[in-house]
Design goal:
Elements: E1 5-10, H1 14-24, E2 29-34, H2 37-47, E3 51-55, H3 63-73, E4 79-83, H4 88-96, E5 101-104, H5 108-126, H6 150-163, E6 169-172, H7 179-188, E7 197-201, H8 207-215, E8 216-217, E9 229-230, H9 232-235, E10 240-244, H10 251-263, E11 265-266, E12 275-276, E13 280-285, H11 289-294, H12 300-306, E14 309-312, H13 323-338, E15 344-345, H14 347-355, H15 361-375, E16 380-381, H16 394-403, H17 405-413, H18 420-432, H19 439-454, H20 459-466, H21 470-479, H22 484-488
This protein binds adenosine-5'-triphosphate (ATP) and magnesium ion (MG).
């Protein structure tokens, strides 16, 4: 006599609740709903549902708080959070608080059933399991890892899941894909975050120095060792040690690392004393370590010790949906750092960025955006402003050649004040190619700049030349970030 499964859905939108009810009700599943967090909690206590699906934005308290209350009462409760936005921080924090999953609402029509089935299955399997009480502190932290793609959401969930433990984490991914950023996030969200995070690049330090860098040395241990020195393992006690490019760790040192991992013990170079250190290890590599193990360049036992949790960062070209928000994030960053108004990307520029294949991943995108901010001649970044180099793959380069054509013309025209004819030509070409050169803001800035140059920065005369008031000119100067240096150059 199987009892009906019960799913509780809490969401402020009645429409959403109806939709969920339709989707999830079956002859064996009963769906109950509530529009507020407090009512939802009461229903939870009354009905002990097998699964709680709750929106994060609720009143009178948030979905995360509901999650915490529910899990305090029922430590094995399975809770899935949903959100319209799903910021990095929200996803990580929610997973850390013990959410079973976090779903961005835009993906819901496709994966609601999948998540619910997985959650109910886990519920069935977990009946006897005990759960560690979640840490309830929520730190103030800016969203610094950006990404809404499914692949990145997966990464955030993993960060949330592993942060509470001391398990070694191995982060893999191409160069510039964000490995170090993820390592820092794991530390930041861990109970060790009041202790140090130390990063060491194993490939950058010569082999002879790496051992003493990591483990320290005794006075006179080798030529130049004038005094005793503590290594990173000692300095980092209680914290997190990030061994970057672990694939380049010399074999002889690998055994010493293995020992620390096994029993927390090591000794300084040239010393006999056994020291202890409590360090969480995070490693990263862009090598194929399995292959390195196979070729006997990397110890198999160490590999298994380090590879307890694997976070695989997808290359940027496989998460094109992140490109726009990453680019906008970097534009904000440049504007804040330089105290300048934030530039915007034209749709055409976004399309060009999305079609690029990004061999240097997010780092390359950040560089391109920084340089574009310098190149841009208006508040809108156009394709011509994007220094993408030769790295565009053959087939999309073809497609770009025509798309960027008018912009290239604009770039050439930038050398001298444009004539009306030249401006019209740019517009016509753009219209033919159905592209979007955003000519007017660009011209506006060009003319303002040239008027300022022509009058050697005399605002009264420049305003007269342009046929605008001085106040308007001032606003433009500010908006277009026309500095004194630009005026006299
Ligand atoms: N998802 C992201 N959101 C915001 N910034 C990012 C993201 N991923 C990477 N970055 C930024 O891109 C740059 C490169 O990232 P990071 O140094 O973490 O890459 P990496 O994988 O360690 O690269 P390498 O293999 O070359 O060491 C950094 O400035 C980082 O802040
Ligand atoms: Mg790195």
């Amino acid at each position: 006599m199987d009892k009906k499964q019960v799913i509780l859905v809490v969401d402020p939108e009645v429409d959403f609740l109806e939709w969920a009810q339709n989707q999830l009700s079956t002859p064996t599943t009963r769906v109950i709903t509530s529009t507020s967090a407090d009512q939802g909690y009461k229903l939870f206590c009354k009905e002990s549902p097998d699964l709680l699906i709750t929106e994060t934005h609720l009143s009178p308290f948030s979905g995360q708080e509901l999650l915490v209350k529910v899990r305090q009462r029922e430590p094995n409760a399975i809770v899935v959070l949903t959100s319209q936005f799903g910021t990095t921080q929200a996803v990580i924090e929610s997973m850390k608080l013990g959410a079973f999953d976090f779903i961005r609402k835009e993906t819901l029509p496709f994966n609601l059933k999948v998540v619910v089935d997985a959650a109910l299955k886990a519920q069935a399997e977990m009946k006897a399991a005990t759960t560690v009480k979640p840490r309830l502190t929520v730190e103030e932290h800016q969203d610094s890892i950006v990404g809404t793609s499914a692949a990145m959401q997966q990464v955030f969930k993993l960060i949330g899941r592993v942060s509470a433990s001391d398990a070694p984490v191995m982060i893999t991914g191409e160069s510039g894909s964000g490995k170090e950023l993820v390592a820092r996030a794991v530390h930041h969200y861990s109970p060790r975050n009041n202790k140090s995070f130390v990063a060491i690049n194993c490939a950058a330090i010569p082999e002879q120095l790496l051992e003493s860098e990591l483990f320290g040395h005794e006075k006179g241990a080798f030529t130049g060792a004038a005094a005793q020195r503590a290594g990173r393992f000692e300095q980092c006690n209680g914290g997190t040690l990030f061994l970057d490019e672990i694939g380049d760790m010399p074999l002889q040192l690998q055994s010493k690392i293995l020992r620390v991992l096994q029993d927390g013990q090591f000794s300084r170079v040239g010393g006999n004393e056994t020291l202890r250190s409590d360090v969480r290890i995070i490693t990263a590599t862009n090598k194929n370590l399995e292959q390195e193990v196979h070729e006997k360049h990397f110890r198999e036992d160490l590999f298994y010790r380090l590879n307890v949790v694997r976070i695989q960062l997808p290359p940027l070209r496989q998460r094109t949906e992140d490109i726009r928000i990453l680019a906008e994030y970097f534009l904000r960053k440049v504007a804040t750092r330089k105290h300048l108004p934030q530039l915007e990307l034209s749709e055409e520029a976004v399309r060009v960025l999305e079609a690029h294949n990004w061999p240097g991943n997010v780092r390359e995108l950040e560089n391109v955006i920084q340089r574009a901010c310098v190149m841009a001649s208006s508040e809108l970044i156009l394709p011509k402003d994007l220094p993408l180099g030769e790295a565009i793959p053959a087939e999309s380069a073809q497609q770009h050649a025509s798309a960027t054509d008018p912009a290239t013309t604009a770039a050439t025209a930038h050398q001298a004040p444009v004539s009306t004819e030249a401006a019209i030509e740019i517009l016509l070409k753009a219209a033919q190619n159905a592209t979007d050169v955003q000519l007017l803001p660009w011209l506006e800035r060009e003319f303002t700049l040239y008027a300022m140059k022509a009058t050697k920065g005399n605002q009264v005369r420049a305003a007269k030349l342009l046929g605008i008031t001085r106040a308007t000119l001032r606003k433009r100067i500010e908006r277009f970030a026309i500095t004194r240096e630009l005026t006299i150059s």
